[in-house]
Amino acid sequence: MRAAYIIFIKRTVHCVEYKGFVFLLIPIKADVNQEGYMQRKRVFISSVQSEFSAERQMLFGYLTSDALLGKFFDPFIFENVPALSDSPSNVFLNQVEKCDIYLGIFGQNYGYEDADGISPTEREFDIAVAQNKTHLVYVKQVDWRHPKEELLIRKAEQMVVRRSFVTLEQLKTAVYVSLINYLMENEIIRTTPFDATLNNEAALDDLDEEKIRRFIYIANKKRAFPFEREADIRAMLQHLNLMKGERITNAAILLFGKCPQRFFITSEVRCAHFHGINKVKPIPSYQVYKGDVFEMIEQAVDFVLSKINLYVGDRSKKIHVDVEYEIPKQAITEAIVNAVCHRDYTSNGSVQVMLFADRFEVSNPGNLPHELTVEQLYTTHRSMPANPLIAEAMYLRGTIERMGTGTEEMTRQCLEKGLGKPEFIPEHGFQAIIRRSIRVAPQVGPILNNMVSAPNDAIKDGLFTEWQSTGPNNVLTTPGESPNNVLITSEEGPNKITENQRRIMDAIFENQYATHEKLSEIVGISARKIRENIAKLKTQGLLERVGPNKGGYWKIKSKPF
Questions:
Q1: pTM to 2 decimal places
Q2: Which of 208, 303, 306, 348 is the most buried (most CB within 10 A)?
């Protein structure tokens, strides 16, 4: 017997069989025509036609024939339009104005350019943005792109979340996920969130009573939660929509379960510490944390704090000692909390926390809501948790504020610390990166900035050495698993670069399309010297040329400064 899922739409009722499941479509909210049938959303597929001919035809056929998506979407591609007297450009732009969703596919080529040097694809994107159309962008991973195509992708990144793909199947999957999210976020269809779903295997006995009572006590003190520590547990769980009848939700297990991983094996946080800037085995320190969401967050935060710099003041002017971490503790906590709270718990992936010599990374198998862009994360925005019941419990416990200010505060603290803005990358899940502040020692010696340096034979390519400090800077570290903060280079070191090479790398970092002549102007040395130094940087594996000499760009593979 097939399972039946209920999806609500407006007015017209449909029964759809899809991938072995029966979907009953019940009216809630959608546009309908005069006959009472649902009006399908028009999807304009935009790309360089010659480059993505197969992709365009695949998406058109998929959106028109799929049992579920075909009920909601009406795709448009120019290839299927009969001969018309109007110019192709006018037809394109007219269809963009009529569409509900702009679906852009960007790749290697920029395409035909009009008298103003603008391609039809970019014209279409600009109109979609100007008219506030929902815009979805998918970028094919290629080794080289036309410079203008690269600029178009960068422009799109400022306004929309983009997805990357390589194969047709990956593009098809990404589009499916995006359109289903569009339907749910616009309440054209509605399904129960994962954390609110009643678990078929778990029972009340699978929850830890002491965890629940400790939560009640903290929530009462912090948020005036209307229950006391000795309150009836069933009543409290029902109050938070974590229990219905005798059944408990997935959220209840993740929040208070005795062993949540018994039901959700990938509900874990994997923490790794690398001394260098790349993932290299063997991993110096690796831990997998399990338990409820609060336990995993606490353990992961402690893991990171134990391995970054800790600056400790003295008691010369006051009793209490000031303690300050290299990366603000609240920023670390926010990144990990977001990953645990907003991840997709149906995914086979896990939350990953990684600390490198130059950065702190947190990634999770979850997607940024289409209503949010990366740029909006740097400001106050509407809170849209993927797991609302988990988010509610985290709010009551004081773990989050539920006001859409977490990433904004995270950004403010990093900027005040001189670390730059955190990087938010919504590809292959969601990733947050905070850059570490690296102190570069000019040479190896017995004393460097009041720090005792490691011997020459301890220096590794791209690695940080261990050190201790006793000087007035009051920097406290210990060997072994403690922070390792000073990048030391020597004349013999494989990553030793000259001042001119450093300036060349800086110039390329700011302008990856710069020619040798342009780099010569920026750095202030001859084009011949530019070529000689670039050849050395390429030999060291620090720099790579992608694409032809004309039209290609520079890629910094490793930045040792």
A1: 0.54
A2: 303
- Residue 92 has φ and ψ, to the nearest 5°, of -55, -55
Helix (H) or strand (E) holding 217: helix 209-223
Q: Are 536 and 505 in contact (CB under 8 A)?
A: no
Residue type, 349: G
Own/partner pairs, 28-31, CB within 8 angstroms, 24+ separation: 28/187, 28/190, 29/186, 29/187, 29/188, 30/72, 30/188
The whole-number pLDDT of residue 404 equals 66
DSSP label of 204 = G
| 509-to-452, 487, 514 alpha-carbon distances in Å | 32, 20, 10
Element (H, E) at 134: strand 134-140
- Distance CA(473)–CA(451), nearest Å, equals 9
Question: Tell me: the pLDDT tens digits for 389-448?
Answer: 999 999 999 888 766 688 899 999 999 998 999 999 988 889 999 999 754 333 333 333
Distance CA 257, CA 484 (A): 37
Mean pLDDT of the chain: 79
236 and 193 Cβ atoms separated by less than 8 Å? no
3-class SS at 253? helix
**Of 172, 87, 99, nearest to 134 (Cα)?**
99
**What confidence score (pLDDT) does residue 200 get?**
87
Cβ of 501: how many Cβ atoms within 10 Å? 21
Omega before residue 282 within 30° of 0, cis: yes
Structural domains in the chain plus CATH codes? 40-185 (3.40.50.450), 194-262 (no CATH), 271-435 (3.30.565.60), 499-556 (1.10.10.10)
- Mean pLDDT of all residues in 373-379: 88
Question: With 0-12 CB in 10 A as exposed, 13-18 as middle and 19+ as buried, what is 426?
Answer: buried
Separation between Cα atoms, residue 48 and residue 153, nearest integer Å: 13
The residues near 246 (Cβ < 8 Å, ≥ 6 apart) are: 203, 204
Q: How many other C-beta atoms are found inside a 10 Å radius of the C-beta of residue 137?
A: 23
Residues 204, 202: Cα–Cα separation, whole Å: 7
Contact 50, 101 (CB under 8 A): no
Give, to the nearest 10 degrees, the angle between helix 120-130 and helix 88-98. 30
- Gap between the Cα atoms of 277 and 436, Å rounded: 11
